[in-house]
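Standup, Tuesday
Yesterday: got the pipeline producing structure tokens again.
Today: sanity-check two examples.
Blockers: none.

Example 1:
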Amino acid sequence: MAASTRLYEALSGETVQASSELQQAIAGDLPVPTTSIYSKSDGIVNWRTCILRLSATAENIEVRLASHVGLGVNPAALWAVADRLAQAEGHFKQFDRFGPFAIAYAPAEHAQSA
């Protein structure tokens, strides 16, 4: 049993079965548009754990040369967050890696599912 499962059970008082509804509910793709913004130079979180399975409403954006804490103040990361939040509800469009911070983003093909 994974440490995260034991922690969840201890904090929630619930038991997670091997094929429980809870596991099935959290195992699939999210039902809302989702963007993962990550950096391979994070230093705290392994970037491979940040990669989403690509779909019509899921994408990954790699910000180059950003630290774990630095992502929160990195202009390129903030630009990507603002761009994602500015989308109209129901009209998801993949992130355009051009603009003032284009050099800070890795090409989309580098952010494929692992």
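Example 2:
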Amino acid sequence: MSDKLRVIFNDKQKEVKIQTGIRILLRRCCHAILEDDGFKGSVDVYITFTDNEELDALCMERGLNTEAEVLSVPTFSDGEYEINADTGVRNIGELFISMPRAAGLATKHNVSFRRHLTYIVANGVYELLGYSDDDVFVRDERRARTELVMSRLGLPVTDYYYDHE
């Protein structure tokens, strides 16, 4: 389990109101993922709530799908995570989330916005830790671990995401 976890939020959008308690839930989610992964030491995770246009621009810069709802940008390189020079804490990366797309997909999947947002943050943190969708086994393992974490957080388990890919 990580010694100290800081989740730093940045809300750069105005379209979707951040519900009461959502930041606490997302912090708990990040902590649960790091604990599940056996991550040791203190860590910073950055989460930026953004709009469609900004996320599309960030994705285009990286040659990625511009219809994404989340972009995971890990700081892992040369076998190490970036270290904050002032605090000495590892920064594992940043998640950029299009809040309008996340809200729309929650409605489409018929799940609560809180559940959907927590689900995409969980998957995003696993990506920051190096779990990729490129390998089917890794993707399936990550899905199972994500659902386990979701149930530990008291959020309903659903298989809708897997049945409709």
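Quick observation on example 2: The domain at 5-163 is CATH 3.40.390.30 (Collagenase (Catalytic Domain)). The first helix runs from residue 22 to 37.
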